[in-house]
Amino acid sequence: MKYILSILGSAVVVAALSTSVAIAGPGAAGHHDAEVAYGKPGDPKKPARIVQIRMGEGDGKMFFAPPIVEIKKGEQVRFKLMNGGELDHELVIATLQENLKHAEEMKKNPDMEHDDPNAKRLAPKKTGDIVWHFTKVGEFDFSCLIPGHREAGMTGKIIVK
Ligand SMILES: [Cu+2]
Question: How far is the centre of ligand 1, averaged over its atoms, from the C-alpha of 71 (Å)?
Fold first, then answer.
């Protein structure tokens, strides 16, 4: 395992040197492509359907627009995220159960930042992408897990058919 990890480590260094693309570090090195209940990290080199999602707040609420995204099984999607609000926001894709659990953890550690393939945090007026490959049918959640935001309306649904 050590051997594999060191190969991965040097591949990341080479990639980082040869391009200026930031490599998002997943929680567990070596599990980058691991498939989970809602699919797996996308391959940015492969074609993807573009889905734009705007994040923001207003009228005492916080939102994702649109709040529902329909996807075909097997489709790779590039979410183009735009934070149009005045506060930091994030989008975390997971099962509803995982996001609810994660939201509780965030209340204990409000400064926890996400830099995983299924999540992106953006400062006001910033844009960013998540590329995700939806390999399994089901209904999944996307939420902003910054304390108070999900409760204020920052949650949406991904339906994979
Ligand atoms: Cu938010």
Answer: 23
Whether the CB-CB separation of 134 and 74 falls below 8 Å is answered with: yes
- CA of residue 21 to ligand 1 center, whole Å: 25
pLDDT tens-digit readout, 62-114: 999 999 999 999 999 999 999 999 999 999 999 999 999 999 999 998 777 77
Q: If you measure from the C-alpha of residue 67 to the centroid of ligand 1, how many angstroms do you get, rounded to a whole number? A: 13
Q: Which of 27-31, 108-112, 146-150, 151-155 has the lowest mean pLDDT?
A: 27-31
Taking 3-state DSSP, the helix, strand and coil percentages for the chain, each rounded to the nearest 5, stand at 20, 35, 45
127 Cα: distance to centroid of ligand 1 (angstroms): 14
Q: Where are the domains of the chain?
A: 43-160
Is the pLDDT at 148 greater than 50? The verdict is yes
CATH 2.40.10.10 for the 43-160 domain, yes or no: no
Rounded to the nearest angstrom, the distance between the alpha carbon of 147 and the centre of ligand 1 is 8
Nearest to 158 by CA among 133, 141, 134: 141
